[in-house]
Amino acid sequence: ATPLTLDTKFTGQLSNTSDQDYFSIEVDGASTISVAFDSPINSSSNYFNVYIEDSSGNILSQIETGSDHTFSAAVASAGTYYIRVNDDRYFESGSYGITASVTHFLFFALN
């Protein structure tokens, strides 16, 4: 998996219909992972599957899209999480962009 720098767009490309791109991000505690997918096309048809997964491969959130889309998943603990991109019903070889961000949950003790 390609490590992602948070809040920085990474450009990827699917080379064929069986290609899968994996990206990793490190999370240091309970937080929300947001993924902004920048599609090379603007279509109402599904060209891309984008997933947020934990280190065991469990899918926490996913989208099917042919256009720009942002989605997120809440995670309860620190660790490495993965973003996976693969081909959906239609294939598009253009370069896509992926930007991951993490928002921490803040707990305040009220006296």
Index terms:
111 residues; 9 strands; five-stranded mixed beta sheet; mainly beta; four-stranded antiparallel beta sheet
Record field, number of beta strands? 9
Question: Number of helical segments?
Answer: 0
What is the string of helix and strand elements? EEEEEEEEE
Largest sheet: 5 strands, mixed
Share of β-strand residues:
over 45%
Could you list the spans in which at least 5 consecutive residues all have pLDDT below 50?
Answer: none
Question: What characteristic shape results from the CA principal axes?
Answer: elongated
| CA gyration radius, whole angstroms | 15 Å
> SS-based structural class?
mainly beta
Helix content: under 10%
Mean pLDDT: 94
Distance between the termini: 44 Å
Across the major sheet, the strand order is: 1-3-8-5-6
What does this structure look like?
The protein has 111 residues and is mainly β. Helix content is 0%, strand content 59%. It is built from no helices and 9 strands. It has strands at residues 2-3, 10-12, 20-27, 31-38, 43-53, 59-66, 69-75, 79-87, 96-104. The strands form 2 sheets. The chain has a 5-stranded mixed beta sheet, with no helix packed on it. A 4-stranded antiparallel beta sheet has the order 2-9-4-7, with no helix packed on it. It is elongated and about 50 Å long. The mean pLDDT is 94.
